[in-house]
Design a protein that fits this description.
Layout lengths: L3 E4 L2 E4 L4 E7 L6 E6 L6 E6 L6 E3 L7 E6 L4 E6 L8 E7 L17 E2 L3 E6 L1
Parallel strand pairs: 2-11
Antiparallel strand pairs: 1-3, 3-8, 4-5, 4-9, 5-6, 7-8, 9-10, 9-11
């Protein structure tokens, strides 16, 4: 089982930037970021294929967030710019350890390993 550990969360003001990182203990296929705010369901944020050639973003973050990965370091990143208070949530990274070709990049079912999450709080 691949272990995932996120870092980089914190308290920022609206309009600020933050970069999240997720270290994986082994090789993975696609990877993604999801977030969950209190009282809300987990929602897709961004995903990237193994080689980085394919990415997908939630409409709400397009143009502000950038997902990237460094396979040599087994690390996933999420650069978040122009953060909004409503984006306060626990951000978790997810990894596709067993290849699931039939699932799209934003599908929860595609991912079988999850990190504990890192809190991002955006104050107004």
């Amino acid at each position: 089982q691949v272990q995932l550990v996120e870092s980089g969360g914190g308290l920022v003001q609206a309009g600020d930037s933050l970069r999240l990182s997720c270290g994986a203990s082994g090789r993975t296929f696609s990877m993604a970021w999801f977030r969950q705010a209190p009282g809300k369901e987990r929602e897709f944020v961004a995903a990237i294929s193994w080689g980085g050639h394919s990415t997908d973003y939630a409409d709400s973050v397009k143009g502000r967030f950038t997902i990237a990965r460094d396979n040599a370091k087994n690390t996933l990143y999420l650069q978040m710019n122009s953060l909004k208070p409503e984006e306060t949530a626990v951000y978790s990274c997810a990894a596709e350890v067993v290849f699931r070709k039939d699932q799209g990049l934003r599908a929860l079912r595609k991912y079988d390993s999850w990190g504990q999450g890192t809190q991002v709080t955006v104050s107004s």
